[in-house]
Amino acid sequence: MKRIFAGLAAALCAGTAFAGEPAQAVKATMAQAAAPIAPPISERRLEDEIIYFVLPDRFENGDPGNDKGGIKGGPLQHGFDPAAKGFYHGGDLKGLTRRLDYIQNMGVTAIWFAPIFKNKPVQGRPGEESAGYHGYWVTDFTQVDPHFGTNAEFKAFVDAAHARGMKVYMDIIINHTADVIDYAEGEANGYAYRSKADYPFSRKGGPGGAAINAGFAGDDIPDPANWAKLTDPAFAYTPVVRDAERNVKVPAWLNDTALYHNRGNSHWIGESSLYGDFAGLDDLATENPRVVAGMIDIFGQWIDDFGIDGYRIDTAKHVNPEFWQAFVPAILKRAEAKGIPHFHIFGEIAYEEPSATIAAQVMAESHLPYALDMGFAKAAQMVASGKSPPRLMAEFLQQDGIYPGGAKTALGLPTFLGNHDFGRFAMFVRQMSGSDDEAELLARVKLGHAMMFLLRGVPTVYYGDEQGFISDGNDQLAREDMFPSVTAVYNDNNLVGSDATTAQSNFDPSHPLYRLIGDLAKARTVSPALRRGLSTVRAFEEAAPGILAVERRDPESGQRVLVMFNTGASALSRNVEVSYGARRVVPLVGQCPAALAAPGSLTVTLPAHGFAACILESDD
Questions:
Q1: What is the DSSP string of 346-400?
Q2: How many domains does the chain have?
Q3: Segment 212-244, tens digit of pLDDT
Q4: 110, 179, 268, 402: least CB-packed within 10 angstroms?
Q5: Which residues pair with 113 in a beta bridge?
Q6: Is the pLDDT of residue 10 over 80?
Q7: Is 278 found in the same domain as 180?
Q8: pLDDT for the residue numbered 486
């Protein structure tokens, strides 16, 4: 196996050091060599994956007949308005299935897509309406949203992906449903949050109100008999549901207002973070055993019926830890019974700090196995842009031991650079670097992708980043169309690395970022150290842009790879400590030294914004 790694590594390194790209002449060799090394889908471990995250509505329109979801009326009824950034644009499951070649040829092994469950088509106050194109306003947890297609078309998509050896991850929501419940007293005070102390379960409208819910012993008692005594949900606000929406939620138990917190809008701090409505969305009482059992049944059924391979959990930190302690093992057991041994569960624990502390704390409290690596995203944005020195990333990686399970857990954390909530990586690089130079922007965006693929974690590409999408902001401003767009606020951006805009179709396999991602994916596929290697930081610039060097060692194969990055605007050369047992250097990505400078030392030379990965072979 060592000869296979070394031979392919030499081919991978034959191109330019600046981009870490192999020469054109060896691309066929790479494709042939990489394929047999990747294990079958049922054997592939979580850290072996390369994820592609996509919003189906913004990817490809395979069936214009479902653009309005079968709903009559105008945009405020059916939600379809491709010129408006906050409405449905027409992408669907048929379009996603049609583009599987494009996705797979980038080296992707798992597709994670935004929720596809049936949504409330439009919600919001008059003049502030937007549509559920993103999938996070669920009314029916058992059906595909008709704007995206049907359950049968979803099954066809999953089967087509599996036939290619690609896994399918669903984005799920448990914290809340669509905004269906209103409050009789809500409008008068702006739906402000009402605490448990000021509005206890035992009184209607506060301590001085009429006694209700006699015998209820509190929401920290999980006994179903206790929760059966919580019959009146009007302790803080009086929930009201319009007749037209009284039975809109599926399964039917979700229409019971007593299964919701009904305390007003969260302000994201303290108690309200768990009990408040997420921007008005109906906040489920996930302490209630009826909700726990119901959600396990809902998402267990998607595994049973479709054989999906993982769940990304939306707003995970806004759900009480006890829920996850019950949900996660039940879902893993359901997946194992279906013959899915490496089911990937990762939660969204949102924050914007280059730190592991918050994610590690929530994972420990909730027993969530993995989380989206928010800390990595912030560190990569700041370091690849040159805003912060490599020391920031080095110190972030050195926190890996605080995750539950230690540094090995960090290998399964999905890493990313930007997303649909925060904004695109290229935008952050442009803002943080303070430079409008297009060549520098492309180089730094490449550098960030190299960090994501060569450092620990499961690389997660946000759709469109491989085509140079840049975004003007977060949320709706970072959700551009891959198919020809008619949204003016998207089309006025020139894409990074090409002369294209979003006004045209953007599935170009010759785009430099698409090609780079494919090449980095192949390097990762053939290297166990890049997939599963623990990290030892070897060198970093402390106070200015410059060197970052990390040695990664796979404990099973013993393979060591030194990954190196230059975040500065000029070339550098310096000695880097390596394992004392290393005897030879084999190029994997970029320009590597021909030999060690001395036992335990490697002289590293990198161009501006360059990167490289070098296998360190020993005699054993």
A1: EE-----SS-SHHHHHHHHHHT-SEE-BHHHHHHHHHHHTTSS-THHHHHHHTTG
A2: 3
A3: 999 999 999 999 999 999 999 999 999 999 999
A4: 268
A5: 54, 170
A6: no
A7: yes
A8: 98
Q: What is the DSSP letter of 317?
A: G
Residue 539 lies in a domain: yes
- Structural domain contains residue 32: no
The two tokens of residue 450 are 């190299």
Inform me whether the pLDDT recorded for 36 exceeds 90. Answer: no
How far is it, in rounded angstroms, from Cα 460 to Cα 372? 9
Q: What is the mean pLDDT of residues 156-171?
A: 97
Indicate whether 346 pLDDT > 90.
yes
CB atoms < 10 A from the CB of 32, how many?
10
SS (H, E, C) 24-82: HHHHHHHHHHHHHHCCCCCCCCHHHCCEEEECHHHCCCCCHHHCCCCCCCCHHHHCECC
The H or E element that residue 488 is part of is helix 488-491
Give residue for tokens 């990965």.
Answer: 613
Selection from 617, 620, 577 nearest residue 599 by Cα = 577
Does 206 reside within a domain? yes
Per-residue pLDDT tens digits for 271-327? 999 999 999 999 999 999 999 999 999 999 999 999 999 999 999 999 999 999 999
Kindly tell me if the per-residue pLDDT of 617 is higher than 70. yes
Beta carbons within 10 angstroms of residue 210's beta carbon = 10
Rg (CA), the chain: 25
Sign of CA dihedral 567, 569, 571, 574: negative
Catalytic residues: 314, 348
Cβ–Cβ under 8 Å, residues 18 and 609: yes
Identify whether the C-beta of residue 552 lies closer than 8 Å to the C-beta of residue 456: yes
Range of the domain at 574: 531-617
Whether 6 maps to a domain, the answer reads: no
Shared domain for 262 and 321, answered yes or no, is no
Are 154 and 186 within one domain?
Answer: no
Residue 169, Cβ neighbours under 10 Å: how many? 24
What is the pTM assigned to this prediction? 0.94
Q: Is 264 helix (H, G, I), strand (E, B) or coil?
A: coil
Q: Are 75 and 101 in a shared domain?
A: yes
Pairing of strands 344-347, 370-371: parallel
